[in-house]
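Continuing the series of single-chain predictions for the mutant panel. This is the parent chain; the variants come on the following pages.
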Amino acid sequence: MAASWQAPLVDAAALAPMIVPARTALLVIDVQCDFAAESGKLGRAGVDMAPLWPAQANLERLLPAARAAGASVVLARLVTRAETDGVALRQLYRRQGQNEDALALCRAGTAGADYHRIRAEPGDIEVEKPLYSCFHGTGLGARLRVRGVDTLVVCGFTSECCVEASVRSAFERDFHVFVVADACASYEVELHLNALRSLSLHYGLLVESEAVLRCWQF
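Parent structure:
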């Protein structure tokens, strides 16, 4: 964390009764080739993937721990299609001076939309979303409620975009939200830290992966 700001982390002892597996889901956001693999679209364009590597390693440890403990696992992916790219999104990109090709991330049916180094297992919930939030137009909230889930432990990419949008949406749908600070990342460290600071003020509590693992006894 930046020296100017100390993340207000919940320790494992206090956290354990807050993330009881029976009512908790681990929400893993956009761990996909176009976003996280050097061979994906952003990697080929020269974006440095290194800031994501520690978070990727931590979330890879959280997945088996959640499953072993009996928590639900949600794997959410951005899956885009030219015919469903929003008017506002297209206009924003044009006004920013970006070309149409910039929209073609995680296109349906391409390797870029595939999971990167993780995979779904039986019993997991899989979500395909057209834009940032895991909840908008996906039915995820109802699927979680059916399982008795009212608490989310959130990780993935990127902190200031799809993670932040999903955390805000979850809170507004009355879920208790915990953001795993060292299992989320952005391509720029300052963006990551700014997102965590904003979310911790208004939408959820920050935790570290080791505390979650201790709670889930893995």
